[in-house]
Amino acid sequence: MRFKGTFKFYFAFVCIMLLVLATIKMAKHSHDIDSTASARNFQWGEDRCIRCDMKIKDKYFAAQIINPDNNIVYRFDDIGCAVLWLNENHVTWENKAIIWVTDAKSGEWIMAQKALFLDDSITPMAFGFATYSTETLPPKSRPIVYDEINRRIKMIENSR
Fold this sequence. Notes:
This protein has helices at residues 2-31, 79-88, 146-159; strands spanning 63-66, 73-76, 98-102, 109-111, 116-118, 130-132. The protein is α+β, with helices and mostly antiparallel strands. A hairpin with a 6-residue loop joins strand 3 (98-102) and strand 4.
């Protein structure tokens, strides 16, 4: 009799652990992003946006996308150009793309998927999204996450 109770306990424990591991694995693969990859340096005023060919001068609104399969870096003057470039080029590795954006206050690089955005700025391509970390986000602001700005950028472009 004691064996049945112990068996049920261990069976339940193993099932729960398997569910936890499956959840962790699904979460990891849903983004499948190498968060250890570093942002690459820009030559401000020299590098050009791959989408619009404008010189990238403003270090507070720049973005870059790294292809994790071959480490090729694509540079952009505005997060709007980066989002649209991914969409227009039907990038097969989009879910694995390593996307960096510069903090509008410090100029430091932040992973786009972890960044906070505000939609009240004048940006190089007039999409209006400024990026912040949790430390540099202005008080009392209502930030937007990457998935939402991704959707909004496509709407803005379609309305132009």
